[in-house]
Amino acid sequence: MLPSQPLLHAGIFALTVLQALASDTFIAAVYEHAVILPEPTDKPVSPDDALALMNKNMDVLEGAIKEATQQGAHIIVTPEDGIYGWKFTRESIYPYLENIPAPVVNWIPCTDPSRFGPAPVQERLSCMARNNSIYVVANIGDKKPCNSSDPDCPSDGRYQYNTNVVFDPEGKLVARYHKYNLFRGETQFNYPKEPEAVTFETPFGKFGIFTCFDILFHEPAVVLVSEMQVDTVLFPTAWMNVLPFLTAVEFHSAWAMGMRVNLLSANTHNISFAMTGDGLFTPEGPATYHYDTGTDEGRLLLAELSAYPRLSPTYPPAVNWSLYATSIKKFPGENDTFSGSVRKDKFTFSELKRKAGNYTVCQGDLCCHLIYQMSIKRKNEVYVLGAFDGLHGSLIKYHWQICTLLKCKSTDLDTCGQPVETAQTKFEMFSLSGTFGTNYVFPEVLYSGVQLAPGEFEVLCDGRLKSKHGTSKPLITATLFGRVYEKDLPHPLRTSQ
Hints:
Blueprint: H1 5-21, E1 25-32, H2 47-70, E2 75-77, H3 120-132, E3 135-145, E4 158-167, E5 173-178, E6 199-202, E7 205-209, H4 218-227, E8 232-237, H5 248-259, E9 262-267, E10 278-282, E11 285-290, E12 299-306, H6 323-327, E13 337-342, E14 345-351, E15 356-363, E16 366-374, E17 383-392, E18 398-407, E19 427-434, E20 441-447, E21 457-459, E22 465-467, E23 475-483
Parallel strand pairs: 1-2, 2-3, 7-8, 8-9
Antiparallel strand pairs: 1-12, 3-4, 4-5, 6-7, 9-10, 10-11, 13-14, 14-17, 15-16, 16-19, 17-18, 18-23, 19-22, 20-23, 21-22
Helix pairs in contact: 2-3
Signal peptide: 1-22
GO molecular function, one term: pantetheine hydrolase activity
Active site: 80, 179, 212
């Protein structure tokens, strides 16, 4: 006699739990998805047309989920906007939205799809998780009705939220997160009234979740790690790469190292929007990552990660980011400084005129110290030491402190700070530090071709970012990216939503 379907699912789920419990590691997957986009329109399409488009994307995601399962993955993260894209007005996105309940309702959409109204997307995602016995993380849109009793209720009578959902291996909804820090242009969505610190427990650690632009702010990103003590962060994103400091793989890897937590980053793939780059990032560096501007194809990544990184023997110690820099005097010497722009941020730069040397550059309360030695001082390449201490952003203003060893676009100093993807100069050594006024500093090293440098640099307890044995590839930048959250200006849009 064959077991009934519910018993079979329960048995598979129990086996999955036991397998995960047997180890202090787990296998994680992320999928960089080339989203099939709808035709741009200001007018809403029919619900059937919206679902047809979403099913096309879910067909692709389901293939990735099945492949990840076959390779032993316990959890898979898919990208922000991965099911319907991002080209919407408030009205035109409405047919793509579903009512997403709070996980406390104990709901498996796969077996009870109509409990909270039509939910074909949640039903299908739930079944993907259930049929493959894997945690599935996806990004969809939530709609919540409101009325005049709520003074903040939008004029169309509903809130619309950019939302992450997580389904466990039984297909049960175990997490729902409404994106708190909307990126400019996300006018189709509302800001939640309060930040949500969403966590859930698994057999392989405590997980938190947030979305894309959230990673640059204190709430909920820092709260999840510093206060909620999550082991792993799930991070659906639609990240547009911005050199020199904010390419996806560069900053997301640096954030995982700076916060000393696992980060599972799943990006969309759209070259025309400079969207590519995802990875499985750990406190020690990237376990694996992907950056591809040459094709239009998606990519599945898997890696085995520590379930409880704080208990790992390789877990990095806490860093006092200003200890070394505040203990030494400013380096004397050729400190002719000049101003240059990284996008709209005014940096103070000093040109590295020799093959080796010691430099100090200051701006505001921040002084950056660099000791370096190039393999060869090339006449056709210029590097600078740069410092920035100020507010970044034209509308949403948030405070950065940055120390950077940076390649200029050309030998013309006016090009210093402009995007550069390739370089020729390798460094025998570098040591970068700064008098940071924050504990939240993210160490970045980016090589020519927008490649990371796993295992080739270290952060000392006194705040120095140092190469270990020289750079194996030419260097674009080595950067300490600091965030002084308490100096951020009040958000100009959140109260008006």
